[in-house]
Amino acid sequence: MIEVKNLSKTFGNNPVIKNISHTFEQGKVNLIIGQSGSGKTVLSKLMVGLIKPDAGEVFFDGREFIGLHFDARKEIRQQIGMLFQGAALFDSLTVEENIMFPLEMFTHMSKSEKLDRVNFCLNRVNLQRANHLYPSELSGGMKKRVGIARAISMNPKYLFCDEPNSGLDPLTSILIDRLIKEITEEFNTTTIAITHDMNSVIEIGDNILFIYKGEKWWTGNKSEILKTSNQELNDFVYASKFMKKVRAAL
Amino acid sequence: MNWLYHLGRYYILIRRTFKKPEKGHVFWQQLVREMDSLGIGSLGIVSIISIFMGAVICIQSAFGFESPWIPLYAVGLSTRDIIILEFSPTVVCLILAGKVGSNIAGEIGTMRVTEQIDALEIMGINSSCYLILPKITAAVILFPFLIVISMFLGLLGGYVVGVAAKAVTSYEYIYGITWDFRPFNVFYAIFKTYIFAFIITSVSAYHGYFTQGGALEVGRSSTKAVVYSSILILLFNVIITQILLS
Fold it and tell me: CA-CA distance, B145 to B151, in Å (whole number)?
């Protein structure tokens, strides 16, 4: 479980995150949704300590994270897996080396144990026989899957996904969404995914946090979101003609 | 006060960089790779420039010393002193600032804008130590060797072309480069190179590490890395020369 309390961040004179408090549950896919520029990515970066907040606290299973020194944060960070928007795979390393990287840095596994773990992770994301390819040789969907494989290689307790299906075709998007859902249930992780893709919301949104202009605006789940009377959320959810038709059908 | 901000941020980055690496064997792997990339990879350009510049310095010296009052061995003498005192440690390091500096800033800058550095941080890895320390160490170890090779090739280039062009005889050139030889000058050159190697790698890494934006900013960071490294090399060249040779 991850808990944020009164989190705020201002860049220059622009308040991006305004006093957000929320609890992200374990074993569920927690979605953060909102328009571009609403502060979703900043919120996730505040939570993992990539950006320092102006005020507020973040608790990982009761352990306060923000105030910790770099070395003390390391222990919690090793329990975090993160899938970045562009996958952020290391260009100079092969798929196998990318997934092996955290194992190499933080475990005392033998070479064969590491290789077994890499193959397990690759199998888990349905990406066999890609071990020796470089990131430049992978498609967008494959990169995301390698990113997920790397994120789960250390058996993380917390999984962060920043726009996991941006730039992917609808079919691959759904495959990635389902993969995130399966991994969350299988490893009982606290998963936080940032998205503005309504398919993902309907597909995997166990808990949803809607951010509007840096504020916590609405919370609920995938069935509640379609019936909400919140004006700003409705404008966001039913922005497309397709979703308007869905609403009419409902 | 902008420079003060950059100086403070540079200091914090360097302090974070000089921490114990996470895993010793990973550091050694990185170090060997950087020594190959930054050091061995620069050998070609350093060799070519040194040979040709040595040749030109020798011919120009011979041209300038066309006087019955100046002995011909002065051509060898001046070629030696120019190469050892200034050309190899300073000019070659300025060239390395262009080649190695832009490479470092480009590589680290690209890693920054594609979130690879964020990925390292999320894993709990000290990204500056992991990325920058092997580069600084590799340059500080290998650049002095490059500079000694540059000195040798510069003098060789001067000899071959000077003798071939009949600007100086073989005996006079060799007599000139050995006459009143001061080993301290080589120490001075190598000492400068250590400082310049640190400046090139750390300043370039600083510009790459704090890149924000996209491809355009990565290009700008590379340019800034070369410009600021070169300016600092020239500035420290004056300071070190004043301290050691005055």
Answer: 10
Angle separating helix axes B215-245 and B102-113, nearest 10 degrees: 140
Distance CA B61, CA B81 (A): 11
CB B176 within 8 A of CB B73: yes
Mean confidence (pLDDT) of chain B? 94
Q: What are phi and psi of B190, to 5 degrees?
A: -70, -40
CA dist list (Å): B150 to A83, B168, B189: 47, 21, 11
pLDDT in tens, A179-219: 899 889 988 999 999 988 888 888 888 899 999 999 999 99
User: What's the gap in Å between the CA of A218 and the closest CA on chain B?
Assistant: 28
Q: What's the token pair of residue B91?
A: 């000019």
Rounded CA separation A190/A59 (Å): 12
Query: Token digits for A10?
Result: 């201002």
| Interface touch B118/A106, C-beta < 8 Å | no
Rounded distance, CA B137 to CA A117, Å? 33
Q: Which amino acid is at A109?
A: M
DSSP-assigned states of every residue in A74-131: HHHHTTEEEE-TT----TTS-HHHHHHHHHHHH----HHHHHHHHHHHHHHTT-TT-T
C-alpha angle with apex A217: A76 to A235, nearest 5 degrees?
Answer: 125
Cα-based distances in Å from A143 to A86, A149, A224, B161: 8, 10, 33, 55
What are the two backbone dihedrals, phi and then psi, of residue A7, each rounded to the nearest 5 degrees? -80, 130
> In sequence order, what are the residues at sequence separation of 6 or more whose Cβ sits closer than 8 angstroms to the Cβ of residue A111?
none
**Closest-approach residue (CA) in chain A for B113:** A88
Please give the model's pTM, rounded to 2 decimal places.
0.89
Is A85 in Cβ contact with B118 (below 8 Å)?
no
- Between helix B183-209 and helix B2-17 the angle, nearest 10°, is 100
- Give the pair of three-digit tokens for residue B201: 């790698």
The whole-angstrom separation of Cα B102 and Cα A232 is 47
User: Which two three-digit tokens encode residue B46?
Assistant: 């350093």
* ipTM score: 0.87
A157: amino acid identity, one letter = K
Nearest of B6, B220, B14, B204 to residue B97 by alpha carbon: B204
CB contact under 8 A, A106 and B124: yes
Integer-rounded Cα radius of gyration of chain A: 18
3-class SS of residue B205: helix
Closest chain A residue to B125, measured at CA: A74
8 Å CB contact between A34 and A22: no
CA of A229 vs chain B CAs: smallest distance (Å): 38
pLDDT digits (tens, 9 = 90+) for B26-75: 999 999 999 999 999 999 999 999 999 999 999 999 988 877 888 889 99
Whole-number Å distance between alpha carbons of B168 and B186: 24
